[in-house]
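Please fill in the sequence for the structure shown.

STRUCTURE ENCODING:
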């Protein structure tokens, strides 16, 4: 028997990433759990309109999404708990700049460089539609130099409403190989 619990967002757990934007020539970091796949080359990053990071994203039309692993989690949680309006977080993570001058977190196991092509505003959120420009992956998380090994990478997930982090990494089967039992 299923119980109706009302109209709730229940698509959790969700991948988390630290989004980096430039504001006044400084890197600003915010922890985000609202990402969406729009197509094979476009993603959505959803941020409350109150986030300081939105200023840099709108101004520069770029951002990077940096997946979080367990080693990075304490710093990622920290940048998610304080606003860049109140504290300078620019030195929390060491970054390098991509060819397109987008800041990328060095210690992140996987980083996605994005060009913002649109912003859809709804219910107090900026929903940045992004074109994937480049993906940077630490070599130790690659199979054959080009395929990401998520079992090794183990990105962290966020669960709402309990505000808990979960680990990933265990493979339970290969897609399209489970046969329907008749």
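FILLED IN BY: designer on duty
SEQUENCE:
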């Amino acid at each position: 028997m299923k119980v109706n619990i009302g109209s709730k967002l229940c698509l959790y757990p969700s991948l988390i990433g630290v989004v980096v934007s430039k504001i006044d020539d400084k890197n600003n970091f915010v922890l985000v759990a609202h990402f969406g796949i729009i197509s094979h080359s476009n993603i959505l990053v959803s941020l409350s309109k109150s986030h300081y990071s939105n200023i840099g994203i709108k101004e520069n039309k770029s951002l990077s999404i940096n997946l979080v692993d367990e080693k990075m989690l304490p710093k990622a949680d920290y940048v998610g708990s304080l606003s860049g309006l109140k504290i300078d977080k620019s030195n929390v993570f060491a970054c390098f700049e991509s060819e397109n001058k987008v800041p990328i977190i060095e210690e992140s196991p996987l980083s996605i460089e994005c060009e913002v092509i649109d912003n859809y505003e709804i219910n107090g959120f900026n929903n940045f539609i992004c074109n994937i420009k480049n993906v940077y992956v630490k070599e130790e998380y690659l199979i054959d130099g080009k395929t990401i090994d998520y079992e090794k990478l183990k990105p962290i997930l966020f669960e709402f409403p309990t505000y808990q982090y979960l680990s990933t990494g265990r493979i339970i089967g290969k897609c399209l190989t489970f046969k329907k039992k008749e």
